[in-house]
Structure formats: structure tokens, C-alpha cells
Amino acid sequence: MNSQIVFALIRKDFKLYFSNRFFAVVTLLGLVAYIIIYFLLPATVNESLELGLYMAEMPPALEEMLVDEDVWFYRAESVDALKQAVLDGDVPAGYAFPDDLLTQMQSGGKVTAQLYLSPDVPPEFKEIYEVVLYEFAFAIRGQSVDIETTEIMLGPDMAGEQIAPRDRMLPMLAVFVLMIECLGLASLIAAEVEAGTLRALLVTPLTMSGLFVGKGIFGTLFAFAQATLLILLTGGLVHEPLLILVALLFGAALVTGVAFLIGSVGRDLMSVMGWGVLAMLLLAMPTFTILVPGLASNWIKLIPSYYLVDTVYRVINFDAAWGDVTQNLLMLLVYAAAFMALGVVVLKRKFQ
How far is CA 323 from CA 158, 238, 308, 330, in A? Predict the structure, then answer.
């Protein structure tokens, strides 16, 4: 395999990519737009207290307590509705009182209540929510009440520091940058297949393996460079920069393999866009589990981009180190190699 021919192929792909005005504009404007979106998103968290509440019968003494400028209450119609509100992220915590609450208080016995918590509630906030619970009981009866509280964590427990919205969005933006380049490369491949350019290249001293090596290097490095630029300009390389770069490189190789698959089945720009948007939506799904932790489920780990999103998110926001995400990197590398190999095999069949 002649390295000079491979490098010439990479230069040709670079020029041909930007000769397509659509992808040239989308690439440049998209990258600028993602960076602007990041800095426009709130950099701080909302400190106002938002809580959910289920109570079959609301005592008049409690009605006055619920009118507070610093506390907003979601009045759930049932316990299931309260749980769903916590899972959906509408409220970080919710209180469910028994239907016979007043009877329990009048008997002087112990009052039972459930405290439902969102998976990303900081540990120190749990004590605050318990204090509010005792304030409820005191407002109803006018004196202290013995309450037995059952804490129930809904969804995976990811207790820790609250994360600013823009830092939650950063992994999603990185995936979108990678996928835009995936669409561009897939469109380039489809156009060359349709025009017969690739077959013509194989008449030259360029071998089949050299062709795919050149395409793979161009696609991987081009996507990697833009994702790295996004993370760099948004301050994501402050902690463990090498770890982030390795994860992005594996992710770029993954989307390059996906681009090979899309380019092999797409016949024109519209079909490439159709398959590409479908692939983008699928690969973007793991990012929504960060925005709404309650959506997380074991099946989401079957999507390759999960390991990229989880790695970037944990390293940037929770200072994860190599040992914490080694399994993610290995899985991402396996998926990248598998999709790259599958893409090469499928695309190669078009020339046989």
C-alpha cells in the first residue's frame, strides 16, 4: 500500500467534502452554533425549592404553608402521578402521605410517609427534605409529630454535585458534531459510488485496502478534530484531557464505520439524509438519559454511543479517571472496530 497515494486520497476527500456547499455550511455553522448554544445555556443551577406532594385531604392549616415564594409545590392526584413527576424531572423530590393521615395524627401514634427522590439529588438535600416533612406535620397538628419516613430513590442513584444545564448538554453536542461529519462522509461516499469515481480510482495503483484506509483516516480525523475543538472551546479538556481525546477518537472511528454503512446503502443525498437522520436519532438516545436520568435503562447500553456519552459526562462533570471508565473505552473500541469492519465489508461488496 503506497502511503503517498493514501495521503493524496485524503487531500482529495477533504477538498471534495468542502466542495459540497450544503455540508460545508452545515459543518462550519453547526460547530459555531453548538458552541454558542453551550454558552447561552444556564451556567448555574436553580436554587429555588421545588417539591411534589400527594395528600388525599389537605388540612386548612397546611394550605397557608404551601404559599411560599421560595418553594413551589406540585400537587399530585395520586402516588403514581407523584412518582412519575419525580421520574420526569418535574420535581426533585415528592412526599406521599397516607390517606388516613389525620386519623393517625389524632390517635397520637407514629405517622408514616414516603419520600420519593430523584436519582441526581445531592445527599445534603435529603436532610432538607426531611426537615420540610416535619414542618408539614407541625403545621397540621400545631406540635411536633413522630414521623416514620421511608426514602425511595427512583431510577439509578447518581447522587453528587448538581450539574449546570450546559455541562449536561455537552456530551449531546459532541455526538451531534460527530454525526454531522458522519452524514458528510456518507454523502461523499454515496456520490462517488454513483458517479463511478471509486471504481475509477481502483484502476490506478490505489488498492482496495488503501482506498478504505484513506477514507477511514479522513473520516476519523475530520470528525475527531471538530469534536475536540468543541470540547476545547467549552472548557471540557481541563480534567483528564488525554482520556477525553481517546474517547473522542474512538467515537470518531465509530461514526466513520456508520458512515461507511450509510454510504453503501444510500444512492443519493436524500437517501443518505434519511438513513443518516435515523442513525443520528439512535446514537443521540443515550444523551437523553443524562438530561432525564429517570429514562436510563439497561437496554440503552446496547447503543454504542452510550459509552462515549457516559465517559465524556463522567470525566467532565464528576472528575472520573482512567480506572473509572476503562470498561467504557474498551466497549467503545470494540463497537468502533466492529462497525468499521462491517462498513468496509458492506461497501466492498458494491465493487464485487
Answer: 18, 18, 15, 12
